[in-house]
Amino acid sequence: MRAAVAHLFREGRLLLFGVAATGVLVETALDRGGDGDVAEAEVAIERLVATPAEEGLVIRDIWLLRLRALLARAHGDEARYRDYRDRYRDMATSLGYEGHMKWAEAMP
After folding, report:
1. 49/59 Cα distance (integer angstroms)
2. What is the pTM of this model?
3. Three-class SS of residue 55?
């Protein structure tokens, strides 16, 4: 996964295919929870944030809310987790993104 996301980034395709690929990488790293996994997740999220995109690219924005919520939970920051989770739920609902709505509802 690391190599695939890095390749998409190098090729300038991070926004095309890399949003979901970054999501998978971050979630996998956080689920694994080994040494350096949280730091790797942070780097992947920040790389996605720093990738130039048109203003209002909602697919990236919704994924970032989800990933930031998961990262906050991994850090044990419950207040920030709840904030990102609630914003994620609201955005998923307002956009009618059924998959994200289900994921958001599954978040404790």
Report:
1. 12
2. 0.90
3. coil
- Cα 86 to the center of its chain, rounded Å: 14
Say if residues 22 and 46 touch (Cβ distance below 8 Å). no
- How many whole angstroms separate alpha carbon 58 and alpha carbon 63? 8
Which of 38, 92, 94 lies closest to 68, judged by CA?
38
Euclidean distance between CA atoms 82 and 62, whole angstroms: 15
Using one digit for the tens of pLDDT, what is the confidence trace for 60-76?
Answer: 999 999 999 999 999 99
B/e letters for 37-57, b = 16+ CB within 10 Å, e = fewer, are bbebbbebbeebeebeeeeee
- What sign does the dihedral 45-88-38-78 (CA atoms) show? positive
Question: Cα separations (Å) of 94 from 32, 64, 99, 100?
Answer: 32, 16, 13, 11
